[in-house]
Amino acid sequence: MSDPRILTVRPEPGEYAWTFGGAPPVARITPGTVLDLFTEDCFAGNVRSEKDLVSEVCQFPYLNPQTGPFHVEGAEPGDTLAVHFVSIEPARDWAASTTVPLFGALTSTHATASLQPPLPEAVWIWQLDRARRTARFASRDSDFETDLPMDPMHGTIGVAPAHLEVRSALVPDAHGGNMDTPEMRAGVTCYLGVNVEGALLSLGDGHARQGEGETCGVAVECAMNTVVIVELLKGVSTPWPRLESDTHIISTGSARPLEDAFRISQLDLVQWLVRDYGFSELDAYQFATQTVESPLANVCDTNYTCVAKLRKDWLPARETHRGLHARLREVATTLPRGGLHSS
């Protein structure tokens, strides 16, 4: 296998995308390219202290900046883009989390309207120890502090939607987008169905860690140095974003109400078992019912996202997505330890 092409992208402040679809590509890449990327945090780097309230330092809709999009040569509707996360490393020694008026799972929102007033705005600055791999929570209203393990992930990755749609980078749907699942970590391969020529891949919204559901609507948000390998599966369709780790196959679904997001992820998993693992539909339905894990990704975004994951060692010994995850893992081991960046 020849050495992969490596493209390094460090966007300037005016060079981010704010939507999926509707933005011109920043580069054209061939399948097999390694992308060495900087992604800004969801606040575009504007929340740096407890005094920086989102309502004062950020301007809607300029939230959740994305690095990209990248035009992948040869990608056409009906194909699948495979994005393998080699490394995801915080680019700074701090991260920010907030409450945002009329946003989050435990407050009134524009979609769940009530006479209840919005929760107050507040900011928490998390100190990251990249050597120890910890993130420090410091209470605002007491002296409690504790170090939690970092678990870096990307909240947002996607391609251009179908049907000429342009979607805000805050929205998850069949094209990917702001799914906010902690499963999107280093060592995982994400499969995205291609909807337009070139796919137009973008990613961003790095989280130093996040609990399942992202209850208040904001994770431990930080800029990231991220390395991914981009590959193309010709003639393989992927209706909803899928992930594959060394241990699990993982389906996602995004919709409102929450039970529809759940149904989408479960149905996609059943259909995956039928297509690649030799199950009949009813056998797959029964098997998934008794084996699936169903963590929440987010219950705060414009669409909610649910995950359906199943252990590989409980499945028949079959190849999925043409064995691409294992091959990309092998390529990743040939890259410099910890990725390409040193900071």
UniProtKB/TrEMBL annotation:
Example GO molecular function: hydrolase activity, acting on carbon-nitrogen (but not peptide) bonds, in linear amides
Gene3D superfamilies from the UniProt entry: Acetamidase/Formamidase-like domains (2.60.120.580)
Highest taxon, organism lineage: Bacteria
Pfam families named among the record's database cross-references: FmdA_AmdA
InterPro entries: FmdA_AmdA
PANTHER family from the UniProt entry: FORMAMIDASE C869.04-RELATED (PTHR31891)
Protein name, as recorded: Acetamidase
